[in-house]
Amino acid sequence: MSSCLRLSSSSSSARMLFRRTTFSTSTQQTRLFHLRTLNTPRLNNPSTILPFTTAPTRLRATSTAVPLVLSRQFSYTLSVLATPDDLKASPLAPLDYAAIEQKWLKRWKENKTVEAQAAAVKAASAKELTADEEPDKFYILSMFPYPSGILHMGHVRVYAISDALARARRMMGFDVVHPMGWDAFGLPAENAAIERSIHPNEWTVKNIAVMKGQMENILADFDWDRELRTCSPEYYRWTQYLFLKLHEAGLAYQKEAVVNWDPVDETVLANEQVDSEGKSWRSGAVVEKRKLRQWFFKITEYAEDLLQDLDRLQHWPERVKQMQRNWIGKSKGAEFDFKVNSSGSTEDIQVFTSRPDTVFGVQFLAVSVEHPILNSVPASHQHQLDEFKESLKKMTSSETEPGPEGVPTGLMADHPFLPGTKIPVYAVNYVVSDYGTGAVMGVPGHDERDYAFAKTQGIDVKYVVTPEPTEGSKAAVDGGALTARGVLMGNNGEFSGLTSEAAAEAIVKKADGLGFGREKTSFRIRDWLLSRQRYWGAPIPMIHCQGCGPVPVPAEDLPVVLPMDVSFTGRGGSPLKQIDDWVKCSCPKCGGSAQRDTDTMDTFVDSSWYFLRFLDPHNTKMPFSHAKATTGMPVDVYIGGIEHAILHLLYSRFLSKFAWKTGLYGRGPEAEDKTGKEPGRGEPFKVLLTQGMVQGRTFKDPVTGAFLKPEEVDLSDPANPIQKSTGLTPNQSYEKMSKSKFNGVDPEDMIASHGADATRLHVLYKAPPSEELEWDEQSIVGMQRFLAKVWKVVGNATQAAPAAEYFEPSIETMNKDERELWRTLNHTIKELTTSFQSTYAFNTSIAFLIKLTNQLSAVTPASSASSTTTTSQPASKKAKKVQAEVSPELYQHTAEALVKMLSPLAPAFGEECWETLQSRSSSTITTPGTTPSVFSEAWPSFHEAALKEDKIVCGIQVNGKSRFNIEYDVSELPSDKAGQEAFLRNLVYKHEKAQKWLLDDKGVVRDVKKMIVIKGGKLVSFVL
Ligand SMILES: [Zn+2]
């Protein structure tokens, strides 16, 4: 190891020193080495530079700027990629992608054992590592899948991204957590049980095995020792534990609620599972209303925190944050009390409004059919009310959302601001009981729904606010609801003439003073309904006792195991209800006979805390240890589909914040703020990367519009598809892949025909992660050509003359081609480092790698190691393409860096290249099969100085206008001001365009009043 720290301190010019070989045999040891290097004080001599390969790159992700949108601009690069001739010219054997992938999958598995041994060595020598030498953790997580048994292209995309990130971060010296598991509870397994008579557990386990194999085939390197499945008792025991914690904190409660009932699946649906047409998201059945006693989580208690802390999420897409803001839906307004006189007694109806400025326009009150005031309805109206309630239950045939409907209740309220004014109370279908107060004030003049309802009741609309103060009288004409804020009209008493904003404030103040109103903030978000009348989920750990009511199952009795011996009829609600042995139990409080709760939890509960469990997946005492979760959280990069932008992320934030607030993890707000922990406050995800959809090429019959199957289209000319049966050009588009559109692509077919490495590269190259990806199989060939070209470069590097053990690039002695290659290499390293750390613009990264490969292909390593200048080769008679030569050391160094950077994206191919480079290099003594993995190498670092341009393009201005450019070699520019002026003047006057702008007819310089050199020689301004 000490040889790696051999530093050059003698030279006055900056020298760079690279050891060409690897220095350890396992990832673990390499990581230890990184740590020591990092903590080794640098020598005082400023000219000393640590060798690149040993200086760990620890740039932090400081921004997540939107990746450069360059998705479709690089196709030109492909055309200059390898030709068949290039491939023939490779000194290595032709590529067999399948064989390479199989070889490395096997090797990686074997090396896991080696790594485990190294980890044991590390643990034994743990005292050598002090706490602050712990490698920085980096937690990369792709949303875990539902085990459907089918991996689709969307999965390939998300795992290709997370795997590339994980591999690169490991090379950068981070202690990476990259787990995978299964969101394994849920309806489809139960439906499979009903349809195919297979137990949900069996179905799930089979699917997991299949998908695991598919993930392996795309070369995804997950931490399988952290694998979890939410349907195993070891996991849901802790889901139940968290339920009990929430219950203890008063955040899990039961109440009667009108629920969405899916008559086909026979289950309660959350509002978000009902589409805009009132149909079930899964079965498509029209949803009915039913009343059941349900379990809720009080997420509304956290509404303000969930809203405010969105501002801490600097690295989340703004779109996602806005969707969450809208869902939480905070609105400021007021609450007013309206007195209702019914049969002698006086009761209040409280209403919430976001528009207190329209209170003088109240013409009725609208209450939900559940509102308690309806107990006081006079007998004359009872029958009509009952009929209305009944009609709401049967409201199942309607295809679209019903309009506002309601009936008068016979109750009248007093307008608090207009003594003597009586207002009718209606029971309506558009106010729900569990939202706000279950009552709203009806202002038809300024609210569209109230207006629509008023029309059904024949109410003459009253206007009290005009958006156009000068046309106040016009607004009095019935022209629909005027919803804009404006100025209060003359019918608002003492508030007339005020703006809406000023009036709202004054009205609330007065109401507050008189005791019938107050300021109030309202949220759109509702408590989280988590009860499911289904089998395949985590049982709710509650027991119902006649005497004691609902009693929590004691924590030590967890898990409440889901019984396995059940029958599935698909009808009649949850199978759990039918299992007497299971349902009957004794009350933990009084010991009397009691019954288990037969509801199971919404699967969103399982997936709202799995990221915490991944940090400590085998803990049998707690859901996760405080220490492990505190160190491991937050997830540094979370990758998944935008379709989870609202519910999954909101629920996860809620449970993570709850765990943090109750001290299950975290150091508390003060300690966190001190250390600048980001994002803090129990926020679970630091960077959120929402990947776009993968779309398939879709063909439609131009006449009928029917989707065409692939075999119905002649694609012999891919650019001009033809419908075989008609000879017509079909309509073409890119659409979400689906069976009914015949546009799906099976990842396994892709991998079988093109290899996993090329498939991964293609997925990453076609579009930036957040954009939609238009799948096009034809262009995958471009990626194979790219890999073939890299293979040829690797071959050239191994053929080069024996290279010195150390590569010491010296810009002073490099020739022009070497300097250009050196600069491109450093640019590429810089780009890829940024990409892997903050922008995730993998499409751009691959374009840079292609460029570097092309440049390496355009030069050859010089045949003699001593050659560092361009040797003009004697022109052979055959006049073959004469390639510029670069030093073999630089060629090899560049090829190695190229392979290191390509490896996270195309891992098996990268390993093969690395092994080839190492085993054939004379300076490395390795036996085949023992070369350390490329992933135990350190990520290359770039050198700022090397990024400087050789050539300067200098703009020439004459009298303030740009006229022409000159070009010169930066090394020729003198360092002093007078020298620069003389040098540039000479160049300018010799330029052909100088004639027109600076010289007279005789070629004599015109009278130059002033010549100014700007920007270090990049701009020269002449004043004549
Ligand atoms: Zn009891």
From TrEMBL:
Annotated ranges, domain Aminoacyl-tRNA synthetase class Ia: 525-645, 726-776
Gene Ontology biological process terms in this record: leucyl-tRNA aminoacylation; mitochondrial translation
Annotated keywords: Aminoacyl-tRNA synthetase, ATP-binding, Ligase, Nucleotide-binding, Protein biosynthesis
Name of the featured protein: leucine--tRNA ligase
Residue spans of biased composition, Polar residues class: 722-734
InterPro entries (alphabetical): aa-tRNA-synth_I_CS, aa-tRNA-synth_Ia, Leu-tRNA-ligase, Leu_tRNA-synth_edit, M/V/L/I-tRNA-synth_anticd-bd, Methionyl/Leucyl_tRNA_Synth, Rossmann-like_a/b/a_fold, tRNAsynth_Ia_anticodon-bd
Pfam families to which the protein is assigned, alphabetical: Anticodon_1, tRNA-synt_1, tRNA-synt_1_2, tRNA-synt_1g
Residues of the Methionyl/Leucyl tRNA synthetase domain: 139-276
GO MF entry, a single one: aminoacyl-tRNA deacylase activity
Root EC class: ligase
Composition bias type Low complexity, residue spans: 862-876
Similarity comment: family membership: Belongs to the class-I aminoacyl-tRNA synthetase family.
EC number: 6.1.1.4
Residue ranges of domain Methionyl/Valyl/Leucyl/Isoleucyl-tRNA synthetase anticodon-binding in the record: 819-967
Chief location bin: cytoplasm
Catalytic reactions on record: tRNA(Leu) + L-leucine + ATP = L-leucyl-tRNA(Leu) + AMP + diphosphate
Top-level taxon in the UniProt lineage: Eukaryota
GO cellular component: mitochondrial matrix
Chain segments carrying region Disordered: 714-734, 862-881
Start and end residues of each Leucyl-tRNA synthetase editing domain: 325-511
Location(s), subcellular: Cytoplasm; Mitochondrion matrix
